[in-house]
Amino acid sequence: MFGNYLIGLREGLEASLVVCILIAYLVKTGRRDALKPIWIGIGVAVGVALAFGAGLEFGSQELTFEAQELLGGTLSIVAVVLVTWMVFWMRRTARHLRAELHGRLDAALQMGTGALVATAFLAVGREGLETALFVWASVRASSDGSYAPLAGVVLGLLTAVLLGWLFYRGAVRINLAKFFTWTGGMLVVVAAGVLAYGVHDLQEARFLGGLANKAFDISATIPPDSWYGTLLKGVFNFQPNPTVLQVTVWALYLIPTLALFLAPIGSGPSVRVEKQKATDEKAEAEASAEKAA
Question: What does the alpha-carbon distance between residue 18 and residue 16 come to, in Å, rounded to a whole number?
């Protein structure tokens, strides 16, 4: 349940902050007349996200077992790709999110009502679709027949809405860079479990082999129906008897992704190469100037 709560909190807070920034900017600049198009765009985005989630849930029930597993496994992998891109993007842009949204809103104000609706829809809709897909994949992976995973998501979203409102009222201040770094790191761990479960789905759909090739089986030590087994599954999508392929994919995703995510921003090899290139060019220019003199 905690893993799903984290997803709802993290994704919901992103959308809440976007809404707060848009509304606060319009209020402070005296453009309350533009609030209605913004709310229309937000409402349409929420409706599309809910319809998308409902389509995933009820549409998949009409399929055969193997088709359900193939769809579930494929969408789980897509969800992990999207959420991985999202956490890295937010980590880099959290400090400048307000300025970026203000710039988009200024341009939309000059273009008219339709542009305002589109701006709000796109800003919130992307978060909504990502949330719907990842929540569906995560709930499907951790569901044990109870409503606990879905309840965790709902509680996370409600907490996010409350924090967004407090943020707007000025009652709470959030260090966005630190918040998204910590929650992003935990979300990468959750995503690794979703990815492993997606691989298992593809194995059950007979799209991938190795279903009978178990890496280990500690079901006797950690029974799936025990409180600690349920806790591990709810937080990390832990499975006591995973296949070799599941464990391999889990490790190949989690270790490098978490290492890259937690590395200081600007310490990547591409940045160092660019800095070295600039230094070399400067040295060459100085050498050429000396020769000319």
Answer: 5
256's tokens? 């490098």
* Count of C-beta atoms within a 10 Å radius of residue 278: 10
Residue 33 DSSP code: G
| Residue tagged 């807070």 (tokens) | 13
Q: What are 86's strand-pairing partners?
A: none
Looking at residue 55, its amino acid is G
Helix (H, G, I), strand (E, B) or coil at 214: strand
Tokens 């100037």 found at = 289
Instruction: For 118-148, write each residue's pLDDT tens digit.
Output: 877 877 787 778 778 877 777 676 655 556 6
Q: In the numeric block, which tokens belong to residue 260?
A: 């890259």
- Using alpha carbons, select from 253, 249, 245 the residue that is nearest to residue 214: 245
pTM of the shown model? 0.65
Residues 5, 7, 10, 12: is their CA dihedral positive or negative? negative
